[in-house]
Amino acid sequence: MNFLERLYGIFFQPVETIKEIVREKPIWQAVVVIIVTGLLTVTSNYRFTMVGTDFFTSSSGMPDVGRLRALFVPMAVFGSIFIAPLTYFVYAAVYHFLAEILEGKMYAKVEDNVSFDQIEENNAEIEQKASGEKEEVVIGTAKGLYSAIGFAKLPMIFMVVVNLFVRLLNSRAGLILTYLFLAIFTVWVIVLEIIAIKENYKMSTGNAVLVYFLPYIVLVVLFIIMIIFAGATFISIFSEVLKNVPMQ
C-alpha cells in the first residue's frame, strides 16, 4: 500500500490496513498523520482562531487576554508538531511493555519453506526478512505499534468539518455539537488503537483491551489513593488542632 491507500483503508478497511501497517511500519507517514491531524483540528477550532480587537491591549486591572491568546497560538502549533509525536512515542513504549507482560508475541523464526500466507494464517507473521536459508519473522515491534496508532488518529480529521460547521450555530448548540462529535470520533480512534495492539502482538481482543485501558486504570487507582491519603492527612491534622483548642 502507498500512503493514500493507507489513508483510505483506515476508514473503509481498518483491520486489513492496520495489518499491513504493522507489517511495513511506515513510521514517518504516521508522524505526518499525527502532525497534520493535530494542526488542522486545533487551528480550525472557532475558539482558537477567534481574536478580538484588543489583541495586544488589556484593560486596567484585567488580565491581558489578547496577549495570552497570542501566546497560546504558537504553543498549540508547537504542541501539534513536536509534543504530539513524542506523546505517541511514550504511548507506544508503555503499550509495548504491557503487551510483553501479557504475553504478546514479540518475535518468531520459521524455516524458509514456510510460505507468507501459511505464517499469517497461523498468526505468526508480520514481516519477513531474508536471512540465509531461513526467514526471520519479526512481530510485535514498538515501531509497528507506533505506526498503527499514528494512523489510528486519522478519524479526528473530521473534527475540522465539525469545527467549521459550528461557526454557523449559536454558542450553546455549537458547544453541544462539538462535544458530541468529539466523543464519537474519540471512540472511533480508541477502537482503531485496540485493533492496532491486537494485530501488532497477535493478542486476543480481551488482552488488547486490557493493554489499552490498563494505564488509565492505574492512573485512576493512584488518584483515588492520593485523595484518600490527602483526606486522612487532613483529618489527622484537623483532629490535632481541635485537641489543642482550649475548651471553655
Automatic annotation (TrEMBL):
InterPro entries to which the protein is assigned, alphabetical: Yip1_dom
Principal subcellular localisation of the protein: membrane
Transmembrane intervals: 27-49, 70-98, 145-166, 173-197, 209-238
Recorded topology in the membrane: Multi-pass membrane protein
One Pfam family linked to the record: Yip1
Annotated localization: Membrane
Residue ranges of every copy of the Yip1 domain listed in the record: 9-225
GO cellular component: membrane
Full protein name: Yip1 domain protein
Organism: Thermoanaerobacter siderophilus SR4
